[in-house]
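Take just one protein record:
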Amino acid sequence: MRLCSRWSVLGRTLSRGALAAVLAVGCCCAFAASADDSRRDGYRYYQIGDLAVPRPAPTRAGAMLVGGGDWPYPAFRWMIERAGRGRIVILRASGSTEAQDEFFRDIGGITAAQTLVFEDRRAASDPQVLEIVRQADGIFLAGGDQSNYVRYWKGTPLNRALDAHVRAGKPIGGTSAGLAILGAYAYGALDGGSLTSADALQDPTGPQLTMVADFLHLPYLERVLTDSHFGKRERLGRLIAMLARLAQEQGRDDLVGIGVDEYTALCIDGDGTGRVFSGNGGHAWLVGPPPAEVLAARQPLSLRAVSVRGVGADSLLHLADFRVERPAFSALYDVEAGRLIRRDANAAPTASPLP
């Protein structure tokens, strides 16, 4: 009301041309304030595109596991097709519109993209947040710090909404931290996120292995521990250590790990068939299950004959039984007193995390 009365006063004192100029500036300023006013109760919200148009096509189930770094666009087009070229919702705990702009402007082919940036746990119970997630045709979990996702989302109405999205036959994807939490088991990074292979192998029973379970529940990943930035950050050793610990704690001998290289995505169809898309010749790494051995507290890990197989662009991964057609490489690894040793030939290329 004060703004309207202010324009009224200006109208009595300015010429018609001058008033039009002032109104134009004022309207631009008001629009800018509205566009930047993204902050809500415990989160920030952004959108691009048209939320009112009908979805072009039905959704189909799928999961896209991106290892981090640059996006392999063919994988994202795969996800967009499974989202019916409709509305993509990006969930994150840092940053702002980077991913939604890349989805909408650089890749294209969708009606709209929305971003929710979580700043604390209460946002995961917000009715508007839950409705945005419910209306999503595809959900993408951005990179960042997965410990925030664990703290903000695990056990909340949002957690249940994500599971409901998957059960409804809609695609979900994640990169880096967003990939890390897609498996049934994950490294939660609750220790600060700095766990290296060397540290994990030296004491797989230690508090630095902050494991998370019973979070998200994706088909075909019920026995899987996921990890990202795999080759570049040399994470094979830590994945083996985490698998060994999980196998002992869970009393299971059927757990496997999947690590994905940067600029690479493992895309899993609704029937459990996985294909790799990569912009740099990267792989998805299928690790384990580890042999059943008792881990000694505060002692370096020792294991024998851990299977490692590479899923490349020409491979098919059947997640129902973890069979790999045309593997890019295969190897057996031993761990001796915390030291990772490749046992045999036909192993990964030199860019992979070899000791």
